[in-house]
Amino acid sequence: MLVAALVAGFISLGLWQFAKYQHKTAVQAELDQRGRDALIAMPRRPASADFLRHRHVELTGEFEAARQILIDNRVDPATERAGYHVVTPLRLAGSDMRVLVNRGWVPAAADRRILPDVAPPSGEVTLSGIAVVPPQKFFTLAAAPAGAGEPVWQNLDLARYVASAPWPLQPVVVQLDAAAPHGYARDWSRPDERADKHLSYALQWFGFAASSVGIWLFFLFRRKP
Question: Distance of alpha carbon 70 from its chain centroid, rounded?
Fold first, then answer.
């Protein structure tokens, strides 16, 4: 009974890690496929997150600095320095529709009360990037204040932003292309980052299950003196 419980537990943990590996690799495969498709214009009418996710999109419109936010505790992978992601709403030309644009990473000052000067350009701009759906579950150190008036957020809570916005907003955030203007450091993380680690963990758990069965069989069938 003990061996059966151990084997069941090890297999369950292995399947859990393998499912995480499959999910990450599937998301990356979708991003790679849609990223190779032709550039599409960001719709001026509400579109579904499933349709827009991982599309390579083009946007023409004007930034709105009044509702720009900084996402705190973002680490630059090249320097391992803490900073912010600069997220600015852009009003699409010829409509009331807005879309959030992640313009990249900027370093934080030693005095966190001093915020970086990241005002967006005025006038009409044309940009391109990858549309991503931000996570809906995240860790927060404290309860977020209501509304979108705070300039610094712990996480990009799209539902919170939509609830306070006086205009329609697409359900994605556009990560600005590396070559696009009006941005900062853009070393976007891959969805399959550390996926191989999950596969390694899965194989270890399956190995523990096999070892448990092997040890049990050894003691079960060994010859008694």
Answer: 15
Please name the amino acid found at residue 2. L
Domain boundaries, the chain: 1-36+196-225, 39-185
Rounded CA-CA distance 218/212 in Å is 10
Instruction: Supply the DSSP string of 68-116, one letter for each residue.
Output: -EEEEEEE-TTT--EEEEEEEEEEETTSS-EEEEEEEEEEPPSSTTS--
Distances (CA, A) of 30 to 9, 35, 79: 32, 8, 29
CB half-sphere exposure, 41, CA atoms < 13 A: 10
Give the residue from 118, 105, 101, 34 showing the smallest Cα distance to 73. 105
Beta bridge partners of 75: 82
- Report pLDDT digits (tens) over 64-92: 999 999 999 998 877 889 999 999 999 99
Which pLDDT tens digit goes with each residue over 18-36? Answer: 888 877 787 777 777 777 7
> What torsion, rounded to 10 degrees, do the Cα atoms 156, 159, 160, 162 define?
110
Question: Residue 63 pairs with which residues in a beta bridge?
Answer: 90
Q: What is the pTM of this model?
A: 0.74
